[in-house]
Amino acid sequence: MDRPLLLIDGDCGFCRTWAGRIARALDSLGARPIDIDAASAVALDALGVPRARTESEVVLVMLDGRHVGGAQAFAQWLVWAGGPAGLLGRALALPGVRQLAQLAYRIIAANRYRLPGSTAACALPAVRRPHSENVSQA
């Protein structure tokens, strides 16, 4: 790898749309690029990334092998990008801001099937199940 790799849910239209939009916006600012790929299309074991992690959040694999997920994946992407984006990324990693960013990430992830660019595949597994499976039978 010569640049970080962002692992996304390749079936999710929301994830594909927004990762692409962010990458194009950063590219227009002259930022350093990253690679973006579907988690299902790469050898996760070779990267040291548990499949279960990629099923619940985006994961950024750094050049040194570290991997970060959720809001901090985006923060580290921005730091890697450099320039003004890097400053924003550093701000997202500050105590307090980091927790708020992660909360915002979790809310967006849980509702991504309702947001622009989404498809039915965007729902997280618990949301995809029919309601009757989520309710215990009395």
Automatic annotation (TrEMBL):
One of its GO terms (molecular function) is protein-disulfide reductase activity. It holds the Pfam family DCC1-like. This is Putative DCC family thiol-disulfide oxidoreductase YuxK. It comes from Naumannella halotolerans. The lineage of its organism: Bacteria, Bacillati, Actinomycetota, Actinomycetes, Propionibacteriales.
